[in-house]
Amino acid sequence: MGTEVSVQLWSDDPSLAERAMQSVLNEMSRVDGQFSPYIADSELSKINRHAFKAPVTVTTEMFRLLSAANSVSELSDGAFDVTFSAAGKLYDYRQARVPKTSELKLAISAIDYRHLLLEAEDSTVRFKHRGTHIDLGGIAKGHAVDRSISVLKKLGIRHALVSAGGDSRLLGDRRGKPWVTGIKNPRGEDTLLMVPLENIAISTSGDYERYFIDSESGVRHHHILNPQDGKSVAELRSATVLAQDSTTADALSTTVFVLGVKKGLELINSIPSVDAIIIDASGLLHYSKDLQRLASSRQ
Predict the structure, then answer these.
(1) For the chain, give me the number of helices (H) and strands (E)?
(2) If you classify domain 170-297 with CATH, what class do you get?
(3) Is 180 helix (H, G, I), strand (E, B) or coil?
(4) Which letter, b or e, does each residue of 74-99 get, where b requires 16 or more Cβ atoms within 10 Å of its Cβ?
(5) 150 — phi, psi (to 5°)?
(6) Beta-strand (E) ranges in the chain?
(7) DSSP 282
(8) Spatial contact of 277 and 286, defined as CB atoms under 8 Å apart
(9) What is the spatial distance between Cα 213 and Cα 206, in angstroms, rounded to a whole number?
(10) Over the stretch 105-119, which tens digit does the pLDDT of each residue have?
(11) What are the residue ranges spanned by the domains of the chain?
């Protein structure tokens, strides 16, 4: 998945602990092999190659994740959209390549989550537009973390932390104490905020993960694109979302980043048991209403 994966856990049985950690890495590898757009024989790659020509029958796991992605797209009026990849694949962050205006214009016509047709009865996926291409990078890492937590629960593990890049899920507490997660300063190595947590998922989307800065204009080109124009979103530096599962947190952190402070917080405040911490382009912190109330009660 192009990111670092880590697991921490506690067990009285050393052999079980080793087996549990290896099981997480195995599950991460399995999910990567299924959902990666960079692996030629992955299920996702097969969809991208064939779904415009004819409906593609997919696994239950793939169908559910695509359905979840489209639900977030509907909820956010298209701010979250896995078909953004029609534009996303035109960028090369290692070579500092930005697509031409003509290329982006053509790609934008293919970006619309409604181009992704899901048929539940047959478990098939079809593209309405020839240029449609999907990338599940905004939700699949969260799914991989959730799957890993499920694996640990089945093995009897009760205290664990699983992370894949900016996506983490905490199982239980840290043996009597809360886990402490830091919100990184997007423009430095320091930590802006430490958050004590347990039994929750946390995901951060930021403009510092994959990016390059244009040497002439000074513009930061990063991987979180606005589906409306195919360009990097400039209003925020990072968006962190707390939710009950990593799939939701992952998708919503991307969504909030695209929506910006006002619309992003409005969306989060409308969803029960979900919170957000946003760092805007000037470095200011913004909190969802429940976190604001919690901070006020402790003052």
Answers:
(1) 9, 14
(2) alpha beta
(3) strand
(4) ebbebbbbbbbbbbbebbeeeeeebb
(5) -60, -40
(6) 5-9, 56-57, 116-119, 124-127, 160-164, 167-171, 179-184, 191-197, 201-206, 211-213, 220-222, 236-243, 275-280, 285-287
(7) T
(8) yes
(9) 15
(10) 999 999 999 999 999
(11) 170-297
Write out pLDDT tens, residues 59-108: 999 999 999 999 999 999 999 999 999 999 999 999 999 999 999 999 99
Give DSSP secondary structure letters for 80-97. S-GGGHHHHTT-BTTTTB
pTM of the predicted model as reported, rounded to 2 decimal places = 0.95
CA 145, CA 151: separation in Å to the nearest integer?
Answer: 10
Max intra-chain CA distance, the chain: 60
Handedness of CA 52, 58, 61, 67 (dihedral sign): positive
Classified as helix, coil or strand, 266 is: helix
Neighbours of 264 (CB within 10 A): 26
Amino acid identity at 133: H
**How long is the chain?**
299
